[in-house]
Amino acid sequence: MTRNAATALCLALFCAVSVPAQASCDASSFPIAVDIGHTAESPGAISAHGRTEFEYNLALGQQLAASLKSAGFPVGTIIISGEGKAQLKQRVDKANRLDPRLLISIHHDSAQERFLKAWEFQGRILRHADQFSGFSLFVSRANAEPEDSKKFAMLIADQLLDGGLSFSSHHAMNVVGERKQLLDPARGIYEYTNLRVLKDSRMPAVLLEAGVILNRDEELALASPQRRMAISDAITTAAIQMCGGNGAGGLALR
Question: How many domains are there within the chain?
Fold first, then answer.
């Protein structure tokens, strides 16, 4: 589905927007938290080339923190150890202690077991899902600031799309483990009500799946400094727009 065709299907809050001229942003008074998804002990998905999701999350999160700092934002990076619910609670508790104006949680995507195919790489039997690619964005209506969470997600999506990236619609598939509500078919924004890092955070919060590391070609792109910089720059621009007032009533419907 093309972006223009999908626009007609979007929900009322998520119709395509045009962003007005950027208002002044005092970045120094607008702290942002960058949450590095997963942990060294519980590293998330294993990529098509045998790397952990946590490695990708850490590399992109560090690049994003550097980009935000260079734009003048105070940045708190959330890196947690451990496994299970305990590390999830620690993650949210730290985010709330930091008391940022925005939270962005960094992840890289996988696919359901039924779609994975075996292949051999460097003597190892690994798995891939080349049929899926693209970024996804998640927000929670249970978040303390759901409207600004949605607006931040919209701004990030527009920057990523304008940069030539595409989103994935596979989380809306009618299969077990997916079936997420695709709130904005033009931008790849999903509702994930009970995701803890989103629902229990006291500030606008967005989770980004930067791309599908089970896709062999996309993984190579995601591993490149150029892609990490492009994604970081897109999020930083969206943060500047939120800081400048576009996230609080400055979005105009087309």
Answer: 1
